[in-house]
Specification:
- By secondary structure, the chain is mainly β.
- 0% of the residues lie in helices and 36% in strands.
- It has no helices and 9 strands.
- The chain has strands at residues 4-9, 15-20, 25-29, 46-51, 57-62, 67-71, 90-95, 101-106, 111-115.
- The strands form 3 sheets. It has a 3-stranded antiparallel beta sheet, with no helix packed on it. A 3-stranded antiparallel beta sheet has the order 4-5-6, with no helix packed on it.
- It is globular and about 40 Å long.
Length: 141
C-alpha cells in the first residue's frame, strides 16, 4: 500500500501525475505513464516528481538526491555522484525551461545544479530555509 506524496500537472493542464511514497506514478487525463520505481531496489524513499517541459516524461527524486529519469526526461547527474558534504534529505527537483537540466534542493537549503541549470547560490548559511523551489526562469533575451 502506498500513500500519495506529490501531484504534478501536465503542461496542458488537462492531466496530472500522482506520486506515491513507494515511487509509484499514476497518470490521469492527458498525462502519460512512462515508468516508476516499485519493484526496483532504491536506497531511499522518493520525495518529488517533476514533469519535463514537453510533458512526455518526468524525473523522480530520491531522499538521497538520486535522480531517476523516465520518458523524454534525460539524466544529467545526481547528488550521490558528487563528492560533497550535505545534510539532506533532498526535497525538490525543478527542471529548466529547456528540459536540459534541473536543480535539486536539499532540506538544509543546499542547491545543486545539473545540466544547463545555473547555480546561483544556496541557502545553507541562512537560519530559515525554504524547502521548495520555484520554476527556473528562462534567461532574459
Amino acid at each position: 500500500r502506498t500513500t500519495v506524496l506529490k501531484m504534478a500537472s501536465t503542461p496542458s493542464g488537462k492531466g496530472y501525475w500522482v506520486l506515491g511514497t513507494d515511487g509509484g506514478v499514476f497518470a490521469f487525463g492527458d498525462a502519460g505513464f512512462y515508468g516508476s520505481l516499485p519493484g526496483l531496489s532504491i536506497r531511499t524513499p522518493v520525495t518529488d516528481l517533476a514533469p519535463t517541459p514537453s510533458g512526455r516524461g518526468y524525473w523522480l527524486l530520491g531522499a538521497d538526491g538520486g535522480v531517476f529519469a523516465f520518458g523524454d526526461a534525460r539524466f544529467f547527474g545526481s547528488i550521490p555522484g558528487l563528492r560533497v558534504s550535505w545534510s539532506g534529505p533532498a526535497r525538490a527537483i525543478v527542471p529548466t525551461p529547456t528540459g536540459e537540466g534541473y536543480l535539486v534542493l536539499a532540506s538544509d537549503g543546499g542547491v545543486f545544479a545539473f545540466g544547463d541549470a545555473p547555480f546561483l547560490g544556496s541557502a545553507v548559511s541562512l537560519r530559515k530555509v525554504t524547502v521548495d523551489l520555484a520554476p527556473v526562469l528562462a534567461p532574459a533575451a
